Amino acid sequence: MTVFIASLYVTSPASRSAPPHIQPSSFLPYTIDFEYSGRIGRRQRKPSPSYSAVDNSGLGPIDGRQPDPRRKLRLRSSSLSLTPGATTDDEKIFKGYDSQSAGEILTADDPVGPGPNEPRAVPWGHSRKFNQPRSKATFSPQPSILSRPCSHQESRDSFLDGAPGIMSKPPFGSPRALLADDDWAVKAAEQGHGGLQNAIHAAEEAGILQDKMWVGTLGMPTDSLKPKTRKIIEETLREEFESLSVFVSDSEFEGHYAHFCRAVLWPALNYQMQESPRHTEYDDYSWRQYLRVNEAFADTIASNWRPGDCIWIHDYHLLTLPGLLRKRLPTAEIGFFLHAAFPSSEVFRCLNSREALLDGLLGADLIGFQTEEYCHHFLHSCSRLRRLEVSANGVQVNNRFVHVKSQPLGIDYESLNLLRQSIEVKAWISSIAQRYKGNI
């Protein structure tokens, strides 16, 4: 029995007496680092032996980019001060931290080790640590009706990652490079939900979870990968890292993640509605891409699900996935947990796709939220927007009862204690101790 964990991933249960888990999530805990093969326009070096390829037939160089760990993300001029509300030097001690070293956290590159609970924002397709393909995403519509005409690159850069309006893409372009299609290594991903990954590791170490399968994307552009390379990567992650890879086009992922999730859905969930009306064309485009990625997850999970397996879906990137899976797998046991906030019905109803999102969530058997307040907001939205019968414990949907519970994510003490040894944390301890020496 397996538990599928989907959070752009999927996992399974601890023992044969418990149901297995498939855990889908936007990003897998793993990504791929390709071997540098040469700069564009320069003589290409001979590729190294493949990580897992039997032969090199059909393989060739990838149009990619090199990372530059020395680059710093810059704050946009419209962002808040580094410490909002700070008025004295002591209050300003908590200034922003910019990584100077890609390997400053010793366990960061270990695919099976713990990682930061809150990984730093890394723009999709702009890794600061790994050699990876360049995005081939095509042009997308402008969001606001007040937007000035701009180039395709400017349009892409505006919504690459992080909370909209907070962080921009790295200020300098990375070197364009050739990457070896048959020489790569599996690395711990820069993106993803670190707290969830650490919780899964803790459950495994405690013997609670034994049979799991992550489900998610590689967290990088994949249009440049040849079919044989994709197959080898897919087989390696499945057999050695308990992971099912979901492949979508660069345009689909960028429309889903950078446009709908980060520019439409995330602000609404956090009570940050747009200041100017959005183009209908933009809303339609981003919503279509959101659905396509969710459908790709549904197809991957449905083709690997077996009777008795459990499916555990995570976060707002996959809100329609429970409903899509319910249509494909009517008897499957499906759980969903929202790590973000859920707003009041007055705010949620402002989303054009509000009914489809609620219907998608209600495909689950159990929906979990971080607080009782979020549970109340969700139940109220189901009552007001879908005219469904609700109670304090859930929602009645035809002949099914969907349980709704508050189940906040806990803390993995052991992994946090290990990460205390990182250079960054030691620097903070030293700085605070010196600043308040004799006062505490």
From TrEMBL:
Descriptive protein name: Alpha-trehalose phosphate synthase subunit
Record-level GO BP terms: trehalose biosynthetic process
Gene3D superfamilies reported for this sequence: Glycogen Phosphorylase B
Keywords: Phosphoprotein
Top-level lineage group: Eukaryota
GO cellular component: alpha,alpha-trehalose-phosphate synthase complex (UDP-forming); cytosol
Region (Disordered): 41-92, 129-157
Biased composition (Polar residues): 132-145
A GO molecular-function annotation: alpha,alpha-trehalose-phosphate synthase (UDP-forming) activity
Pfam families: Glyco_transf_20
